[in-house]
Each structure stands twice: as C-alpha cells, then as structure tokens.
Design goal:
Largest sheet: 6 strands, parallel
Mean pLDDT: 93
Structural class: alpha/beta
Strand content: 15-25%
Strand order of the largest sheet: 11-10-12-13-15-14
Number of strands: 19
Distance between the termini: 40 Å
Low-confidence stretches: none
C-alpha cells in the first residue's frame, strides 16, 4: 500500500527493472498522479513485466470527473487492454505480462466500474512460476537524461509500429458475424455485453486492445457491413480514429459523451424501445455515518461561517446540508494549496481553512503544507485524523501503525511531521469535543502564521462490535438545534426528536449542541 499512485508506479517500475513481474492498481484520477513515472517508463521499457490497472468511472459513481484513460495510453505510447468480463479480466492480466515482456513496455489494463464490480465464474489455469530475471546495468536504457531519452524515443516509435501490426492478428480483436444483417457494431469492455444482449442479430467487432487500435481489422469489418456504428462510453475515441482513417461510422450522434451506457439506452437508440423500469424510489443522498468524528468539526466550521477548502474523502460529505460547510473539492491534497492561494488572493478577507484527512494528507497534502510554511502563509489546516482510509474501505496507511496485511509497521506521527515541515502553531483536539474544536479553530484562524489542528478520533466503523452507551431523549423542546448536525440517527416529529438506537453510537455531539440538555446518555 503506497501513500500515493506515483509512488506505487515507481515501486512497481523498480521491481520490474530488478527482474520481477509487478503491478500497480488505481482509479482514473490516480493515473493523473502516476502520469509522471508512466510517461518515462514508456521510454525506459521494462525487465520483468509491468502492468498498471486503471479503473475509469463512467457515471461518476464515486469520482469527481469522468476522464477517459484511453487517451493516456495513446499519449504515453503504452499498450492498453480492456476486458469485458471477469474471465477476460483474468486472461488479460496474463496476456498483458506477456506483451510487456515481448515488447519491452509497461501495459495498461483499463476497467470501468461495471467490470471492476462484477462477479462471474472464472476458469482457472495452472499457476506458472516466473523466475526473477537477471538485472544487467544499462544506463543508456534506464537513465532518462536527454541524450539517452532522445534515443529511447526512437525505440518507442519502433515499438509502436510493431504493436500496431501485431494487434490486428490478436484473438482479443475479433469480428463476430451473426447473419446477413446490415448493421455492424464496434464495441469493447462492458459495452460489448450490452450490445450482445440488446442487438443479438448485429455483426460485432470486439476490440480488446484500445492502444494501439486494430485499425486494419476494423477497416476490414467495415467493408462487410452496410452501416457501421461505434458504441463506446465517454469520449468518441474509436469513432475519431476510424473517421481519421477514412472509415464512415455513426457514434456520438446516438449516444452522449456523459455517463454509462446500458442495454436500455442501446435499445432506445436503435429500436426506440423502452424497457420497463422499476418504480422510482425516493433519493437517498449520502451522509456521514452516525458517530462520524468529522461531524462536530464541520458543525463548528459552519457555525463560524468559514470558507472551507475541502479534499477527497468521507469528509467531502461536509458539503451536504444541513452542515453545508465545504466550499471546494478538486483532487487529493488540493485543499492545502487552494487554501493557501485563496488566502493570498483575499488577504484579511479570506476567513478560510483547509480540511484534509490523515491518509490524504500523507498522499499529497504534506507538500502543500511545506509550500505554505515556505511562503509564509497565514493558512489554517485541520487534519481530520480518523486512523484509517475511510472512504475506500478502511485500508491502512503510513500513520496507522499497520501495513496492508494488518501487521505492525512504523507509524508516521502527524504532529511531528507537521513540526518538521516548520509548523510552530499546532493543536491536537478530540474531534468529539465540540467546544474544544471551536476554541482551537478560533485561535488558529486568528494567527498570522501557518496553524495546524489535528482533530483525532478513530472512524466509528473500525470497531463495529464495541459496546457503546447510546443517547436518549428527555423532555425535548423540539427546537431542532440537534438536527443541524445532520446525524442519520436523529429524526424529528411533531412532539420532538427521536433517536434511532440501532444507529446511535453515543458520540455525544448532539448532547453538546442541545441548548436544553434534553439529550442524555442512557441505556438502550
């Protein structure tokens, strides 16, 4: 488990140069972070096979954008494969390693949300043990200073030409003729499965290599159908390539560049057929969990009417009413840099703070803090230390004291790290202590130097079996003050608020905001 994707790819590349097969996995936005080593790894090539798996997110189920990673493959001149099923996901990994070693290149495997989250029966094969390849010193290959890189770029171009010829004969790029049907469809990935279900009589060309594209194979397919369609999610990547090659086709005239495709959307476009949809259910917007240690912090920030430069994590939900505290969220680590820039722009009128989680701070926030200290900013940074990587499934990170296997590991001390960056004004508070948080925030924002507040409390989901004393309601005045913290365990009726004891964790934040002390610890 690397602190960020750039480090992960660098570690994998180092293992590859050392002779071992290696893999790094990330989301599409993580590939942005890893782009620096990726582009140069395309020049250096590999020793042991190097595979990078990237998951794109059409529809933005849990992402801040819908970028299309196929353009990274084309821009970096790195081969890219995309499976359409669980079985192919397994097979394409093996193929990717073989291509990596055959053509001396990193290989990208692109998945989308639907394939990455899919389940299926997978036929296994015998495991093949690969010996570590010998390492031979080759500075002209692995040291990418300009004189060497110029020569390596020539090798990349040669490899591109060899791959372009090779992919047209690969089994994963194939035409599937079903009838004398006039329609021909070019597709790949999860969309291939949708097309096969929605248009069972259509002739299909299934693309397995998204870079290089099997242009010659697709041209041959186009000659055998009367009308050619390209059905692809997000950008018209294949469509544009075909049109540039002089192949007439229909694509984004029928489908949007936004969101996911589906069987229903394809049927609607081709046959104007509607698939009966399930009855719509009320929307359930995401909220922070009952007992989330971030809730009290955002309550205070909202109360003090501060501009909050947020970051990527569970705490992004601090933007959701009734807390409605977060003003910006761009990418991992951006909160610190943006808060610094915001304060420089607005001066005394800034009234802003940066908020970041412990794992995100280690991912890419610490460099922003170094920058703020170096440039003598008056930045206030709040590190929400919940002792885990909460948003993506409670993975360990370098400050938790455990590695990804759950074994003991050295722990980065966040307070000492901040001090090493030059921070002198540092406070540590209990995230559940609303009064202490408010006092700390007021003091930090009044300072003219970089101030850091570490709000500590473990994520409430880390120990689901912990016995907790819940909160009960006594003589509620129905003022609604406790509703302002947005806890899902609290609901309001005509006669007063109710506590759902199946959700309440006894964090006590609601008790602190109740002006009449109607909320008290009690037995459930």
């Amino acid at each position: 488990m690397a602190p960020n994707e750039k480090v992960a790819v660098e570690v994998a590349l180092g293992a590859s140069v050392g002779g071992a097969r290696a893999m790094a996995c990330m989301k599409h936005v993580g590939l942005n972070v890893a782009a620096d080593p990726l582009f140069t790894a395309a020049y250096t090539g590999v020793n042991g096979g190097l595979v990078i798996v990237v998951a794109d997110d059409p529809g933005m189920h849990s992402s801040q954008n819908e970028q299309d990673s196929r353009y990274y493959a084309r821009s970096a001149h790195v081969p890219m494969l995309e499976p359409s099923s669980a079985q192919e996901a397994k097979e394409f990994v093996k193929l990717a390693y073989e291509l990596s070693e055959k053509f001396d290149t990193p290989v990208l495997i692109r998945e989308t949300t639907r394939v990455a989250h899919s389940h299926g029966i997978v036929e296994l094969c015998d495991r093949e043990e690969k010996e570590i390849k010998p390492y031979e010193k080759a500075a002209n290959k692995y040291v990418c200073m300009p004189a060497n890189a110029i020569l390596r770029h020539i090798e990349v171009e040669k490899r591109d030409n060899a791959l372009a010829a090779f992919v047209n004969g690969m089994d994963i790029n194939r035409a599937e003729y079903t009838s004398e049907n006039e329609i021909g469809v070019i597709c790949f990935g999860a969309v291939y499965e949708y097309v096969k279900e929605a248009l069972p009589s259509a002739n299909v060309y299934k693309v397995g290599t998204l870079y290089p594209l099997p242009i010659e194979g697709m041209k041959e397919f186009a000659k055998k159908v009367k009308k050619l369609y390209v059905i692809e999610e997000l950008e018209p990547y294949i469509e544009d390539a075909l049109k540039a090659a002089g192949v007439a086709c229909v694509g984004k005239e029928l489908f949007s560049v936004q969101g996911e495709l589906s069987v229903a959307k394809i049927l609607k476009a081709f046959e104007n057929r509607e698939i009966p949809q399930a009855e719509k259910v009320p929307a359930r917007p995401p909220v922070m969990c009952a007992g989330c240690p971030h809730r009290g912090v955002f309550y205070v920030l909202h109360k003090l009417k501060l501009t909050v430069n947020g970051d990527i994590g569970c705490y992004t939900l601090g933007a959701v009413p009734p807390l409605a505290a977060v003003d910006t969220c761009v990418c991992m680590g951006a909160s610190v840099g943006m808060a610094h820039g915001f304060k420089k722009a607005r001066g005394e009128n800034a009234h802003n703070v940066a908020v970041i989680g412990d794992s995100t701070f280690l991912h890419s926030g610490v460099t922003g803090l170094i920058n703020a200290v170096y440039n003598q900013s008056g930045l206030t940074l709040i590190i929400l230390d919940n002792s885990t990587t909460g948003m993506t499934g409670h993975q360990q990170h370098p400050a938790t004291g455990k590695n990804l296997k759950g074994e003991s590991a050295p722990s980065v001390l966040l307070d000492e790290l901040c001090k090493a960056c030059g921070v002198k004004d540092l406070q540590i508070v209990d995230a559940y202590d609303v009064a202490a948080v408010e006092k700390a925030v007021k003091a930090a924002t009044a300072s003219n130097e970089v101030s850091v507040i570490i709000a500590q409390r473990p994520c409430v989901l880390l120990n689901k079996k912990a016995k907790r004393e819940t909160v009960v309601v006594k003589d509620c005045k129905n003022c609604g003050k406790c509703m302002q913290i947005g806890c899902p365990a609290i609901s309001r009726t005509e006669t007063g608020v109710k506590i759902d004891l199946t959700q309440c964790t006894g964090c006590g934040v609601c008790m602190q905001v109740c002006p009449f002390k109607c909320l008290q610890k009690g037995d459930n």
